[in-house]
Amino acid sequence: MRLLLAIAKRISGLYFILLLLCLSACNACQAQEQEQKQVSAGGYTFKTPGPGGIGKVYMGREIAGIISPAGGAWLERESREEQDKASIAVANMGLRPNSVVADIGAGVGYYTFRVAPKVPDGKVYAIDVQEEFVAALKERAAARGLTNVNVVKGDSQRINLPENLLDLAFMVDVYHELEYPQEMLQDIYRALKPDGELLLLEYRAEDPNVQVKELHKMSVEQITQELGANGFELHRQEDFLPRQHFLVFRKAAK
């Protein structure tokens, strides 16, 4: 009888230890799952940030960190035209003299001040979320005497323009850094005219020879998936740029 009681106690002790181990493992798994898959109301998930990322994920893609005003010199580097052929991109935007255009994430205005002369009877809205860039854009527009450039302070979810205003909105190496891509796309959709277009230039993730950090590159598949979920359809795809996709979207038919 004593032997049976001893065996029973030993089994109970082992069971208790195993139970503690299982509970500990379960808690660790739940914590990890919560860290990796915590879903917000906007459909975003969160994880431990990767190199250059913010730890926020949209449709399987980690959002990259935004370039700071300290990187303004890189935006105007002398090699940019040779590397990315901005002049070719601007020439293929389909601009008319009276086009109303938004440069979203304008930075120091590298594209803004190349587009403005193409729309002398129109308007270019240079939009940025960072005060330093906004101030620089205003100063540069005034110095150039460009009365058709309006500088707008946007925020992380809105471009702060009226409805049904734009013939063209474009983002150059910006979309992958949007903290709220879903909300921004919906706001851009609202600001575009019924036949307005949204142009994205993004470094090609499909090309291993494009020497850009992974989170700062995007594939056509990923871009069309995200924009398709927000009411856009791919209208035109061009491959004439050395390193970037040139993707034109329109509002999808309802």
UniProtKB/TrEMBL annotation:
Residues of the Methyltransferase domain: 101-196
Task: Quote the protein name from its UniProt record.
Answer: Methyltransferase type 11
> Which organism is this entry from?
Pontibacter flavimaris
Q: Which taxonomic lineage is given here?
A: Bacteria, Pseudomonadati, Bacteroidota, Cytophagia, Cytophagales
InterPro entries reported for this sequence: Methyltransf_25, SAM-binding_MTase, SAM-dependent_MTases_sf
Keywords in UniProt for this one?
A: Methyltransferase, Signal, Transferase
GO molecular function terms attached to this record: methyltransferase activity
Q: In which domain of life is the source organism classified?
A: Bacteria
Q: Which residues form the signal peptide?
A: 1-31
* GO BP field: methylation
